[in-house]
Design a protein that fits this description.
The complex is a heterotrimer of chains A (81), B (751) and C (159). Chain A has a single domain (2-76), classed as Roll (Ubiquitin-like (UB roll)). With 81 residues, chain A is α+β, with helices and mostly antiparallel strands. In chain A, strands 2-1-5-3-4 form a 5-stranded mixed sheet. Chain A is built from 2 helices and 5 strands. Among the domains of chain B are: 22-30 and 455-598, Aldehyde Oxidoreductase, domain 4, CATH 3.30.365; 372-447 and 605-749, Aldehyde Oxidoreductase, domain 4, CATH 3.30.365.10. The N and C termini of chain B lie far apart (59 Å). The mean pLDDT of chain B is 96. Chain C folds into 2 domains: 4-79, Beta-grasp domain (Ubiquitin-like (UB roll), Roll); 88-158, DNA polymerase, domain 1. A 5-stranded mixed sheet of chain C has the order 2-1-5-3-4, sandwiched between helices. Chain C is globular and about 50 Å long. Classes of the chains: A alpha+beta (81), B alpha+beta (751), C alpha+beta (159). Chains B and C meet through α1 and α18 of B and α1, α2, α3, α4 and α5 of C. Bound molecules: FE2/S2 (inorganic) cluster (2 copies). One FE2/S2 (inorganic) cluster (FES) binds at residues 99-104, 136-139 of chain C. One FE2/S2 (inorganic) cluster binds at residues 99-104, 136-139 of chain C.
């Protein structure tokens, strides 16, 4: 199981939950599992998210591994200049 | 891509050779966007709305079309129909609306029609023949007014899921994050300061206006030459807007005369292609400076409230920020980035940040170096400075006390990997600048800054020649000397001299997809890809050597540009130089190349600390920056001179933003300062030398430890300068730019 | 509009062109003579990217009409090097990395050369004020000023 920390603005879509537990081995699986658990998360995921795994920010990749016990944060998609 | 193959002793990396394109650029030979020509070429010009908000009732182009010099007129009807969708998915629609207005003109300068004619003068003249009937609508250009209940609605239905009920339709995105218990945190504080701050929109101010040369036939095949930070995104977007297949449009990036984020999208390119398709001839389109100001992508303007609680010993017990960003008549203002970056330098137990993305009748904002971050840093670091002043604490010590480090839970959520903020603060403390005495009338300011950095899709191809030289094809336009850095990294891996490597920015037809040169990603991502491509070629070189020697390939290693036998069963052979292997490569298995395609995901965040001395003339309100020191973590500086250049350029732009630059709109919603005379960027006589200190805390996500350096340097200056000016003037400056009239007004208010 | 025939000298070469009386010298250099080294950054005399010298005087070629070039001696960035030998300023600009994007470089070189011809020993302040008409958005001017002053020192030594 992976504990996914959401940004607090998403609580309104998860019935107040800010940490969601899902089963996932990669970043892509994680996003799919989040939507299965909370279908309303589809909108923010479509709008663009990044995922921080143990502090490393995965900007867009869906195939990055999520090792057992890692710290996982969902973040808004990063943009640059 | 991990620590295991990280290198730390370098031969080429870290040296400062001349850049490969230097000769072209000092002789006038380098070809920039406006320097291209094609046989039979027409010149384009764009008609722009004089109104900030108006319904386009009718466009009558018949007189222009009838003119003998005019070969094509286009309006919105000449573009593909891109459906309106909310969210990022709808970005093509937003770009289309921006490059050519649909039902409404949404800002002063919004394109409404375009012509192609036989000369630039004829095209300009022909614009006067186009008659547009407008129904002028109420407009709003200020962020706070755009959020007010009575504000005119710019576009219904643009808000996404995130916006709380009851907000004005101009609020299109909402971000909230943080952790801990704010109330408890503020209760622990010995002093709480809460204040509001405003920054005006600024422009990237690249000296080269947007320019392109487009050829598109009725067969759906096209060629586009343009000045851009990313020709693949230009290819993808133009193809979508014109309804052609992406791969049928070949885009070549010219030399680029500055971008800073402003050339990460398209403005005139789809228009030139549409004109070319209609006229069936090549069309060149070049913006005037005034068009650049009115109708490209300036920054957001911002209105912000920050509240911070501090204990007597300098510990920050709680922090909260609300950041409202106005990003023009389209979604996209980086209120979320402002929020996530604002408190990122600090190790905070209780923190909350809120960001708003608000639409107004202004041009669609674009990125400008670390988009969103400088404004937030200005507000937060100003409050921290005021807390230090009131509590009698040293501003560097307080920042050190609260500084984030490896293992800190970032204000935006995750736990930091190895980061270099503390190192920059220690360097600031030790720097002679920090202890130098100030003259009367001078003040000193400090600020930290944070930026995420970015990886992005990257393709690099490296080919060896028979004579042992190498050519590297990268897809990230070179804005500040990146070809030199790529050649250094390739030289490091191949072990051949820097001069024997030629780096080219490939066009979209000759290399796989590349993300834009943005997010400080070029040296990180294209660099990583160059290293991997070179290693790929080295593997093949080792295979050939092994075959020649008749030993297993794992008994060959690469050292100083030669294959050498290694290990117990390798045998005794003289080192075989690269050129000996490439000399007959055609007959030993074929050409030797290396490739790398991936989306590297280890950009590594970066931090900087700036020290500024400023002097304020109480008579005129004029500020001069008398001393400036930039200290920033580069991870590993590949070409240190160009790293310094990034630091100095970021600081200079920050000085302009802090002291002079601003978009000024009149009551009529028109931009009032659309030339460089009125939008004043720093000139040589405004600035001191800018000292730099390169801190190197290697990024675990890059083989040589590189962190992006292009953007972080513009995050601290606004706050550092505001702190210096506030300390010099004895009054807290809460509004940028701190132009002489504002300083005089603040001095007067202060008695 | 009727076009005018102009005969002039650019970088020592006799040239002629036909131009509309509204066209600037910059337009004529770039579009008619294919000398695209001078750049248009603003068209209003504020950025200096179009700097050239006319009869030895530093001017913004975007502020001068093409017809006014009749009979004049014009020097552009393309004429700064002596064949394949770079001018010391050009060498120093590269060596100091005094350019990032390089769009301002032609104008800076023309302006700096004209400074050194008038004042072979400029102070930092004199150099900064002389170049105040040449905008550079990339470098913060630090390396440009150092390159120009070091060139001046080197040229003084050599002469
Ligand atoms: S183009 Fe002539 S001064 Fe800017
Ligand atoms: S180097 Fe880019 S404007 Fe000067």
């Amino acid at each position: 199981m992976v504990e996914v920390h959401l940004w607090s603005g998403l609580r309104s879509l998860t019935g107040g939950q800010q940490v969601v537990e899902v089963e996932a081995k990669t970043t892509g699986e994680l996003l799919r599992a989040l939507v299965r658990a909370h279908p309303q998360l589809q909108a923010p995921i479509d709008a663009g998210v990044s995922i921080a795994v143990d502090g490393r920010v995965i900007a867009t990749g869906l195939t990055e591994p999520i090792p057992e016990g890692s710290e996982v944060y969902l973040m808004q998609r990063l943009r640059g200049g | 891509m991990a620590l295991d193959d990280r290198k730390s002793d370098f031969t080429f990396v870290g040296t400062r050779p001349n850049r490969p394109d230097g000769l072209d650029k000092v002789t006038g030979r380098a070809k920039f966007g406006a320097d291209a020509y094609a046989p039979g070429m027409l010149h384009g010009a764009i008609l722009r709305s004089p109104h900030a908000h108006a319904r386009i009732v009718k466009i009558d182009a018949s007189k222009a079309e009838a003119h003998k010099d005019v070969k094509a007129v286009v309006t919105r009807a000449d573009f593909a129909d891109v459906p309106f969708k909310p969210g990022l998915e709808g970005e093509f629609y937003n770009v289309l609306e921006n490059v050519m207005a649909g039902e409404k003109a949404l800002y002063d300068g919004h394109a409404v029609a375009a012509v192609a004619a036989t000369s630039a003068l004829a095209a300009r003249d022909a614009l006067k023949l186009i008659e547009v009937e407008y129904e002028v609508l109420p407009h709003v250009t200020d962020v706070d007014k755009a959020m007010a209940p009575d504000a005119p609605v710019i576009r219904e239905g643009a808000a996404d899921y995130s916006v709380p009920e009851g907000m004005h339709p101009n609020v299109v995105r909402y971000h909230e994050s943080g952790h801990g218990d704010l109330e408890a945190g503020f209760a622990e504080a010995d002093l709480i300061i809460e204040d509001s701050f405003v920054t005006e929109a600024t422009h990237q101010g690249y000296i080269e206006p947007h320019a392109c040369l487009a050829i598109l036939g009725n067969d759906g095949k096209g060629e586009l030459w343009c000045t851009t930070q990313g020709h693949w995104i230009a290819q993808k977007t133009c193809a979508a807007l014109l309804g052609i297949e992406t791969s049928q449009l070949r885009v070549t990036a010219s030399e680029i005369g500055g971008g800073f984020g402003g050339k990460t999208t398209v403005f005139i390119e789809p228009v030139a292609l549409a004109l070319s398709r209609k006229a069936n001839r090549p069309v060149k389109l070049v913006m005037t400076r005034s068009e650049v100001f009115r109708a490209t992508g300036p920054t957001s303007s911002a209105s912000m409230d920050v509240k911070i609680g501090m204990k007597k010993d300098g510990t920050i017990s709680a922090a909260q920020g609300i950041f409202r960003l106005q990003g023009g008549a389209f979604p996209g203002a980086p209120g979320d980035m402002t929020a996530m970056c604002a408190f990122a330098p600090y190790n905070l137990t209780n923190v909350k940040q809120i960001g708003y993305d608000v639409m107004a009748n202004r041009p669609k904002q674009a990125a400008y170096r670390a988009p969103g971050a400088p404004m937030g840093a200005f507000a937060v670091e100003s409050v921290i400075d005021e807390l230090c002043n009131k509590l009698g604490l040293d501003p560097v010590e307080v920042r050190l006390k609260n500084a984030a480090h490896e293992g800190t839970k970032a204000s935006y959520g995750p736990t930091y990997e190895r980061i270099g903020l503390v190192e920059t603060l220690e360097a600031a403390k030790a720097h002679p600048h920090y202890s130098a005495p100030l003259k009367p009338g001078q003040g000193r300011g400090i600020s930290c800054g944070f930026w995420f950095n970015h990886g992005g899709e990257t393709s690099v191809s490296l080919a060896l020649s028979e004579d042992g030289s190498a050519q590297v094809m990268v897809g990230t336009p070179d804005i500040g000397g990146s070809r030199a850095s790529m050649a250094l990294m390739a030289a490091e891996v191949l072990g051949i001299p820097y001069e024997n490597i030629r780096v080219t920015i490939a066009d979209t037809a000759t290399l796989g997809y590349n993300d834009v040169s943005h997010g400080s990603r070029v040296t990180y991502a294209s660099g990583l890809a160059t290293i991997k491509a070179a290693r790929h070629a080295v593997e093949k070189l080792c295979e050939r050597a092994a075959a020649k020697w008749g030993i297993p390939v794992d008994a060959v290693k690469w050292e100083n540009g030669c294959a050498v036998p290694s290990g117990p069963n390798a045998g005794d052979f003289d080192p075989m130089p690269l050129a000996d292997i490439t000399a007959d490569m055609g007959r030993t298995g074929g050409p030797i190349s290396g490739h790398f395609e991936a989306t590297p995901e280890g950009a590594g965040v970066s931090f900087g600390t700036h020290i500024v001395d400023a002097e304020v003339d109480p008579e005129t309100g004029k500020t001069s920056v008398t001393r400036y020191t930039v200290i920033q973590d580069a991870g590993k500086a590949i070409h240190p001179t160009y790293v310094e250049g990034q630091y100095q350029g970021g600081a200079a732009q920050g000085i302009g933003w802090a002291l002079n630059e601003e978009y000024i709109y009149g009551e009529d919603g028109r931009l009032q300062n659309s030339i460089f005379l009125d939008y004043r960027i720093p000139v040589a006589s405004d600035l001191p030398m800018i000292d730099t200190v390169i801190v190197e805390v290697p990024n675990p996500g890059h083989p040589f430890g590189v962190r992006g350096v292009g953007e972080t340097g513009i995050v601290p200056p606004l706050a550092a300068i505001a702190n210096a000016v506030s300390n010099a003037a004895g009054v807290r400056m809460k509004r940028l730019p701190m132009s002489p009239p504002r300083i005089l007004a603040a001095l007067k208010d202060n008695g | 509009m009727k076009k005018f025939h102009v005969t002039t000298t650019v970088n020592g070469d006799a040239v002629e062109y036909l131009c509309d009386p509204r066209e600037t010298l910059l337009d004529c250099l770039r579009d008619k003579l294919n000398l695209t080294g001078a750049k248009e950054g603003c068209g209003t005399g504020d950025c200096g990217a179009c700097s050239v010298t006319v009869d030895g005087r530093l001017v913004c070629s975007c502020l001068m009409l093409g017809v006014e070039a009749e009979g004049k001696q014009i020097e552009t960035v393309e004429g700064i090097a002596d064949g394949d030998i770079l001018h010391p300023l050009q060498k120093k600009m590269i060596e100091y990395a005094a350019l990032q994007c390089g769009i301002c470089t032609p104008g800076i070189l023309v302006a700096a050369k004209s400074l050194l011809e008038k004042n072979p020993n400029p102070t930092e302040e004199e150099t900064r004020y002389w170049l105040a008409g040449n905008l550079c958005r990339c470098t913060g001017y630090d390396k440009i000023i150092r390159a120009v002053m070091d060139t001046a020192a080197e040229m003084r030594e050599a002469s």
